[in-house]
Amino acid sequence: MDVVPSLDPGSPRVRFGAELRRLREAAQLSQAAVASRLGCTQTQVSRLEKATRSPSKSDAERLDRLFGTPDGVSFTRLYQRIVAQPGGPVWFRSWVEEIEPTARILRSWDPLLIPGLLQTEAYARHLFSQAPQITSDEVEERVQARMRRKRILDRDSPPLILVLVDSGVLFRKVGGAEVMRDQLDYVLQIAQMPTVSIQVVSPDCLTGLMGAFTIAELPDGQPDAIHAESSAEGQVTTDLDSVTAMWNRYEAIRLWAYPEHASLQMIQKARSEWT
């Protein structure tokens, strides 16, 4: 049975899906019939209705042409509300809203920072506050958006989280000694979950210096997806060549990882040095 992520019933994406289902059923159309008009699959229409897939602009425009705007419902306006939501860049939303919540396995590598899913609120807040020209309200929006992502860890059937981090991450000061102690305490706590594995990678590993990335294995035979970060704009793709290249890089980095029990000892030792 598919795991449906916890969703905010008041969000425009949930409203989009609910209105689509209501109007489709009122018109006595099947999901397959709507899919043919949108130029997609029945599964994609199902995911739109369940709010596990974000609509595209063309989806919204075609639905408005199909159903009109009964009762003042406009899919185009709902789409505009979805993309206007705060909390992160537009390019990253497909990952946060569609891929990460439905992934079976998330494998990540980070050469610079504790990965977002494992960050404490204080650690994340300090990171976001360093962005040029960012306002305090924008910092809080991004912090809360990052904290909401962590809900997948509390699901009845959470994804398997396999984390690789460079050893230097444990000693890179973010927000001061107290923030670092709390952050490493939290990492050690999360590492006790049976679905989470954290390994520290030797500083001699140069393969991963090109940047952080995550590989998502998805259910139901869907292709793997990757999220690769950069200093400008990141990339989210299921392109086979890109995914294969990232898998090869991940496996090369993993060869430099310390065993999990040794990694946790290293994290504990690093934590004790933040005084």
From TrEMBL:
The lineage of its organism: Bacteria, Bacillati, Actinomycetota, Actinomycetes, Streptosporangiales. Signal peptide: none annotated. This is Helix-turn-helix transcriptional regulator. SMART domains: HTH_XRE. PROSITE patterns: HTH_CROC1 (PS50943). Residues 20-73 form the HTH cro/C1-type domain. It comes from Nonomuraea ferruginea.
